[in-house]
Amino acid sequence: MSTVPDLPASGAKAGAATVVPAAASDARQAWRRLRRRPSAVISTSVLGLLVVLAVAAPLLAAAEGQDANTYHDALVDSARGGVPIGSFGGVSGDHWLGVEPGTGRDLFVRLLYGARVSLLVAVGATVVQVLIGIAVGLAAGLGNRLLDTVLSRFTDVMVALPMLVLAIALTAVVSADFPRPLLLILVIGLLNWGATSRIVRAQTLTLKQLDFVAAARLAGSGRWRVARRELLPSLAAPVITYAAILLPINMVIEASLSFLGVGVKPPTPSWGQMLSSAQTWFRADPMYVLLPAGMLFVTVLAFTALGDAVRAALDPREAVRLRVGTRASSRGRTARTARAAASEAAAAADLRKDTSS
Amino acid sequence: MTRYLLKRLGGAVLVLLVLSVAIYALFYLAPGDPARLACGDRCSTQQVEQVRRQLGLDESVYAQYAHFLQGIVTGRDYSTGTAVLHCDAPCLGFSYQTDQQVTALILDRLPATVSLAVGAMVIWLAVGVGTGLLSALRRGGITERALTLLTLAGTGTPVFILGLLLLMVVCAYLQWLPFPTYVPLTEDPEQWAWNMLLPWLTLGFFESAKYARLTRSSTLETLAEDHIRTFRAYGVGERAVVGRHALRGAVPPVIALSALDFGTVMGGAVITESLFNIPGIGKTLIDGVREIDLPVVVGVVLVIGAAVVLANVVADLLYAAADRRVVLH
Question: For residue A296, which residues of chain B lie inside 8 Å, CB to CB?
């Protein structure tokens, strides 16, 4: 795709446009800009709550007095095919969010443990993607021409491959004994690092030309030291931005794979898997559809909103706008705001081009 | 132009070769014995060995891969000892489960996938571009805020949540439609359309959020350009400025992205197809994975890869055709 220079959906271009070496004060300013966005504050609070719930899942389960895998046959109506007894899917003092139809397992605890799986896979896969992306991108940007060509071609191939499809095929051939969450982290992480690597390479190529890097070189720093001390800090802004965009995407991929029955395996609870089994309970037990769907929707939305806010806060053009103090008026169609909008769409389009349909 | 095209197609072939090596390596490393899988549970050891020879699974992995490639280009023959089983080019082998040729199986599933892709694309273009334009032209108003929020919510949401909710409300509660079952267009066009309606809406709405964002930003970008200011200064009416000039800037990226997405959906919208039980390419893949039907998985992954890679080339060509400032090189 990168062969068309003007295509706005080209990640390399979006990255190259955001090059500004970040100093400590820049980081503090970005932080301040981030804190001033209501969407960032709200989404961070939601995600913070979710993380607390997920970490404290065993404690909360103990407080409720339930666990994730005990069947309660007495709580489902076997005459009606296993519909939970009681209103709202069997909500009671013992089962705060009701029970799973068919098995009678506690839904509150299963949702919490599902949150653990979702967060673990999303964060783990993002870490793998970012690490590989930085390693490959830096090597391509700093290496000789041959290395750059080989790595760039390889990245092109990785980006062109249909990711969800390969993930499905991969999960099918790995032995069933392999721990599934770890498998999902590796599969998603190893398949979807191309965009990050492109950004890092583009940034490295530009940064390499700048004076402070040349100065470090002249002062006698070796290639490795330059990469570590001079380039990595400047790469932080774009990498954080892309990581924030990747998180919700990875979470959706995990949920999709589990929904398709090739992700997390029972009895480990997962939201995608619950939604898959909920298909037979539309009419009889709507709560069983709405609860995991709501959890997944809110979490992904919070991550997406946070990613958006982080991107805007770390965008140097935004910084310029604030420093000069000219807030673009609501009808002011300045080139700057338009270009910011374009880079937003470019980032979104590039990363989302083959998300799970 | 010809040179560019050759270069791109060469690149596409390279990607497909890498994909085929990767998928073949997976196939080879997969747990379980392919000969045993092909033969079935009730086969004796002797029968399994016979199947192994017939399918050429006793050869080295390199020879197997070479034969696999050869089968795609020229077709190949499987000797059953007494008779010869011919598999036409492009031969992707035989399904373990049904003994059907994988190529025939895929062609058989193609119409359902095409039905889904075309309908969904109509919806995502209409809804996505419409919403994006509206939000670009109503900047700063409540309309824009509402639309921005809606598209943000739509961008991240997994497609199956939307599909499940539609199924639940429309089919289970309101009972406006029965739960969809696929009816081929050639059998009954009216039933085909009614049954495809929910899948179209689901996939169409899912994709349209992305198009709304893209249309909005590229329209804004064009409106900010100097020549638009000049038109306005000359007194060209707002309607003409937007309709004739701003749209011209908004259209190329939308076309390019549409080509990409059409390719992806043609390669099987795996989730939508399995949610609505549409017997398309994506459903074939997931069924193949569940039944450990390796030749089907390999074949479908290759076909999907080809669809996606070709869509990439077409997207770039269309982009260049729609925006003459772009130079292909």
Answer: 158, 161
